[in-house]
Amino acid sequence: MSAQSAGQSSSQGSGQDFGKTLGVTFVIALVCSLVVTGTHLALKPVQESWTDVARYRSVLDVSGLLPDTPATDRELAALMRQLEVRDVEVSRKVNGDVKVATEPVFLVWTDDRLQRVILPVAGQGMWAPIRGYLALEPDLRTVAEISFHDIGDTPGIGDRIQEPEWRAQWRGKAAFNDAGEAVLGSGDDPRHRIDAVAGATITSMAAMRLVRDALGADGFGPFLDRLRRENLRPEGTGP
User: Fold this and answer.
1) Whole-angstrom distance, CA of residue 135 vs CA of residue 118
2) Exposure winner among 31, 63, 107, 119, fewest CB in 10 A?
């Protein structure tokens, strides 16, 4: 065999080896991609289910319905079915733009008597969004309870707004002043005043602001006004 033929044979062999390597790499990448996609699709219902459970716990945390002992997921679902849900249109500010969204409001009834109204609250924290639920007493003016379930701010700092001591400040506070304006957490009037969390001032101030926004004219304010004018009974019941 001449040197030229040997060189051509070696070159062809190298090209074939490279092609095989490239083909094997492509197949492995394709298989890995299919596995990742399949795993994501398989786990998506589970992830959504756990998201629902976390949301249920947050709603029920302010409902006054939770038992003293820890409830199972099945018990949580049963308690959620006791709540009346009303879809309410509200305005949300997203990246500076005001958008209309439909939000679920939960009403807690006992023997056809309103016990609490639970409003979802959401807005921008220091670095990331904050979400939670605010429960009002039957007068629709007094805070019964508040809970934050999705706090994107710095762990160990921003999540201090979920501490029992700070949440306790909200209970019994008047959400509105005598003129009907949402003033919860603002000013020096002890009926509305809530002290910021030391070490998490910006996040706690943002939480108070987003609650006021939720209670205002672009939030659930009009819905609460309509509810005050209603003969407060569960939907679908007679007079």
Assistant:
1) 4
2) 31
By the 10 Å C-beta count (0-12 exposed, 13-18 middle, 19+ buried), 134 is classed as buried
Q: What pLDDT does 203 receive?
A: 85
Query: Which tokens in the block code for residue 154?
Result: 């710095």
Which of 131, 133, 120, 144 minimizes the C-alpha distance to 64?
Answer: 144
Rg (CA), the chain: 28
Tell the residue number behind the tokens 């190298």, with chain if given.
14
Q: Which residues contact 88 (CB under 8 A, 6 or more apart)?
A: 102, 103, 104, 105, 220, 223
Which is more confidently placed, 189 or 157? 189
Model confidence at 68: pLDDT above 80? yes
How many Å apart are CA 51 and CA 37, to the nearest integer? Answer: 20
Overall pTM > 0.85: no
Q: Which of 63, 224, 205 is nearest to 133 (CA)?
A: 63
The pLDDT of 150-173, averaged and rounded, is 80
- The reported pLDDT for the residue numbered 42 is 36
Q: What is the pLDDT of residues 44-54, one digit of tens each?
A: 333 334 346 66
Q: What's the rounded Cα separation, in Å, for the pair 208 and 199?
A: 16
- ∠ CA(85), CA(91), CA(92), 5° rounding? 100
DSSP helix/strand/coil, 118: strand
Q: Which of 168, 88, 189, 177 is nearest to 141 (CA)?
A: 177
